[in-house]
Write a sequence for this structure.
């Protein structure tokens, strides 16, 4: 799995001045996992047991959604 998965940290991607954490594993056809909301939610907390299983057959990507855990905005973006 990507990055320091045990701590819930994956890789970081920047788009439109927004940084977000995501996890990526496996290869082949892509599967995108989107988590829900609530206290303590993140891609890792919702999908940490599912990612390794799906990664045996697919390329799995699981981003942290806007406003949660390792998602960050740049000060000038206003988000």
């Amino acid at each position: 799995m990507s990055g320091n998965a045990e701590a819930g940290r994956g890789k970081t991607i920047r788009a439109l001045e927004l940084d977000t954490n995501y996890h990526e594993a496996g290869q082949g056809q892509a599967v995108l996992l989107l988590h829900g909301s609530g206290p303590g939610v993140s891609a890792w907390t919702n999908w940490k047991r599912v990612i390794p299983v799906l990664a045996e057959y697919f390329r799995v990507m699981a981003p942290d959604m806007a406003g949660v855990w390792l998602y960050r905005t740049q000060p000038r973006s206003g988000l």
Observations:
- The mean pLDDT is 80.
